[in-house]
Specification:
alpha/beta, 7-stranded mixed β-sheet, 3-stranded antiparallel β-sheet, 16 strands, globular
Length: about 525
């Protein structure tokens, strides 16, 4: 690493990170997961994201919620883009390009209700991990929530030597002056040649080949940041618990809703064994062995406070949700460690039908409506977790709060839609209703932009999008083949625009994105 890149501390900095949005960083979403475990949720006045990447999550959460956000990312180009998003929305987020040591010791930071780190912990030095834990200890409020994700053992145990070999190849055998993406390609080609020799390592780890195949299908920018940093430290849950104990944090629950549904992740025998373990940390570590966990997304709390059964039921009844997919596209399938499971149609069909108008409703209201179907409160809570975990249901904030945020989300969304004219890198818009992001592809964003600019018919939206693509010499790719003629491209866009109008426009209007 050259001296000009010393500020990066071994982290890949010569290419930009992907434009990802991470819903677990939305404090509103944590409420259902915590209440399901009988835990008092934190406040939401102040939030902080450490290592925000391109800043899409923090910019959306700042625009779409009343939370005052702070954050830092050491990469100045990424911090600059994040600041631009904030400026466009008119939100008051305070975002910096400072290293953790500098940012974490700023004297002007408030105490935080929520601190989030996604894709950071496993890729920074031990020194930086100590800085992060000290920051959490000093700046997370009592009762405050930490979201943290990290690469996990034992899931990474078999592939860790392969990752080491790839980075060694990049450092030792790649030609000087090559960019990181070329080094990634060269390392992958070398691994293919190695596996072709049928090494004993591959025979002892027969799933390596399949995992490498999936790896090569990933975005190269993602691979560079995921696999080729100098620092890379997957760890057991118990090790993470030891780190966070110094900040007075207790494990609350997984941030991945589906992890709360044991029947799609654990066999009856596995559930029974875990139920016998009194220590939470050891139980989570054992569970990770059962599911061969590779990546954890967890919520931790500084001072867990438990609700009584009555209080828990009352709080859960007040949680408001809405269906964010067209009713006809709603799925009764959910994937867990045990594979894909079919949800009980007698429970899920009435709930989905009731929510099909995309109006926000509390779980209590859903329970009242479902009483005639003999669907009880516990089944409704589990359905909310499953539908939320599969991305079909969103938590909803107060209507007055949403109304106050809409001006900012409108500005941010208009800016993001206009960026979609030249690139499909960003596939999410902000909703003041959910306080978070909603995935929407490039062409769908262009259709929405056309609608906002006064074009009312789907055919006009298609023409609007095609005019933008054609001016740049771009063509639609369908089934791996570029459509060459004007007529073919326009016909494809007309088909997509008609589907968009029929299915997605009602959802976008309910989310107050358009």
């Amino acid at each position: 690493m050259s001296s000009s890149n010393d500020w990066s501390a071994g982290y890949i900095s010569d290419i930009d990170y992907t434009y990802g949005y991470y819903t677990e960083l939305n404090p509103l979403r944590a409420r259902l997961a915590l209440l399901n475990r009988g835990i008092v949720p934190p406040g939401t006045a102040y939030g902080c994201e450490l290592g925000f990447g391109q800043g899409l999550s923090v910019a959306i959460h700042s625009a779409a919620s009343p939370t005052q956000w702070y954050g830092t990312d050491f990469n100045p180009s990424q911090a600059g883009f994040a600041q631009e998003l904030v400026e466009q929305s008119g939100s008051d987020a305070k975002l910096y390009d400072q290293a953790f040591e500098e940012f974490c010791n700023r004297p002007d930071l408030p105490d935080f209700d929520f601190i989030g780190l996604h894709g950071i912990w496993s890729w920074v030095s031990e020194e930086n991990r100590h800085l992060i834990v000290d920051f959490i200890k000093r700046k997370l409020k009592v009762g405050g929530l930490l979201y943290i994700s990290y690469n996990t053992l034992p899931g990474w145990a078999a592939f860790a030597p392969m990752r080491h070999l790839m980075t060694e190849h990049s450092d030792v055998l790649s030609a000087g002056g090559q960019g990181i993406l070329n080094r990634v390609d060269e390392a992958l080609r070398f691994i293919d040649r190695l596996l072709a020799t049928n090494p004993l390592y591959a025979r002892a780890n027969p799933l390596i080949g399949e995992r490498l195949k999936r790896l090569k299908e990933q975005n190269k920018h993602y691979l560079a940041h995921e696999y080729f940093n100098r620092e890379w430290h997957p760890m057991h849950f118990a090790t993470m618990a030891d780190w966070l104990q110094g900040a007075k944090l207790n494990f609350a629950c997984s941030a991945h809703y589906l992890d709360a549904v044991d029947n799609i992740n654990l066999t009856k025998e596995q559930q029974a064994l875990i139920a016998e373990i009194p220590d939470v940390s050891f139980a989570e570590t054992v569970r990770d062995f059962m599911v061969n966990q590779q990546f954890r997304r967890d919520y931790w709390i500084k001072g867990v406070r438990r609700l009584s059964r009555l209080e828990q039921s009352e709080h859960l009844s007040n949680v408001r949700v809405m269906l964010n997919v067209p009713r006809e596209d709603a799925s009764l399938k959910a994937s867990g460690t045990l594979g894909q499971a079919d949800m009980n149609a007698q429970i899920y069909t009435p709930i989905l039908d009731y929510l099909s108008d995309h109006k926000p409703r509390s779980l209590g209201e859903i329970a009242e409506a479902m009483a005639k179907h003999n669907i009880n409160h516990a089944q409704i809570v589990e359905a909310a977790l499953v539908l939320g975990g599969t991305g079909q249901l969103s938590a909803v904030q107060d209507a007055m709060v949403a109304s106050k945020c809409k001006k900012k989300t409108d500005k941010l969304n208009r800016y993001l839609m206009r960026k979609a004219r030249t690139s499909g890198d960003i596939h999410v818009l902000a909703s003041p209703v959910t306080g978070g992001g909603f995935n929407l592809g490039r062409f769908q964003q262009l259709f929405a932009l056309a609608y906002l600019e006064g074009h009312k018919d789907a055919s006009d939206w298609a023409k609007f999008a095609w005019d933008i693509l054609a001016k740049q010499g771009q063509r639609i790719v369908r089934e791996g083949k570029a459509l060459e003629s004007h007529e073919e491209n326009l016909a494809e866009l007309n088909s997509q625009a008609a589907t968009f109008k029929a299915k997605l426009m009602p959802v976008l209007k309910a989310l107050e994105i358009v």
